[in-house]
Amino acid sequence: MTEAMAVYGMVFAKLAIGLLAIILQINLMGKGNLAPTSALDQLQNYVLGGIIGAIIYNDQIGILQFMLVLILWTILVMTLKFLKGNLRIFKAILDGHPVIVIEKGHILTEECMRYGIQAAELKLKLRAAGVQYVTDVKRAVLEQNGQLNVVQFGEDNIRFDLIDDGQINQFTLDVIEKDRDWLEQEIQNPISINEIARLVGNDTALASNVYLAARLVSKDLSRKEIIFLADLAKALGLDDALVEQLEKQAGF
Fold first, then answer.
1. How far is CA 4 from CA 8, 52, 62, 63, 229, in A?
2. Greater confidence, 22 or 176?
3. Where are the beta strands (DSSP E) in the chain?
4. In the prediction, which pLDDT does 35 show?
């Protein structure tokens, strides 16, 4: 009886430690692994679950060894996250990039073959998106998480950021048929506030989104950024009450 209690006590202790390790990883590395959007998020879940599941009932592995394995895995994942966020080559390897599989009603066969997308799989994803005919598709993009985003003729194209996490998005440059020299020139000659306001026009919803985007970029407000945001809000025609509401919405 005592021996059985000791065995079950060890299993319970390992289970509690494993649960704490999962919570710790989620809090340390963000909520991405709750709804995986990349291979690393998915792999993190699989391996962590495998480690905990395999070790819990193995009485030859003690709690100290179990904790050591969990710590090593957490350090490895955090290192990969750091490298992905700071080095473009690691981001490309770990996350990949969106893939255009249909352009102007034509399936890009070479791209589909390169990334292992079968015809039946593509058709299934199109049906799930409510599309019956490929000829109705203006552009279809397969995202890193396997989701297919479909734009039909008459709809606006999907918009991708030119710069992600401080790194140039080569995929977006290829889509808009521009190069790095063009982007660097645009960065050196930024658009003026008046030009932004002219392009936005009288669309209050768009103006709000533009202000929010600028506010999110300017997280730690310097004097220049405060002046810029005030001038931007004025040029966009956003009153103080709306600006305050947008600030709260953004969590500031």
1. 6, 21, 16, 17, 66
2. 22
3. 99-103, 106-107, 137-142, 148-152, 163-164, 167-168
4. 57
